[in-house]
Amino acid sequence: MNEILNLLNLYLSQDDRNEQEKQWATSQTDSPELQDIIAKLDTREVRIIGLFEINTDVSLKELPQSIGVSQASASRSATKLEDLGVVTKNKTSLNNKEWILSLTDNGEQLLEIKQKLDERHRQELEKISTDYTDEELQHFADLLRRIIKMDRS
Question: What's the pLDDT score for residue 15?
Answer without folding.
Answer: 63
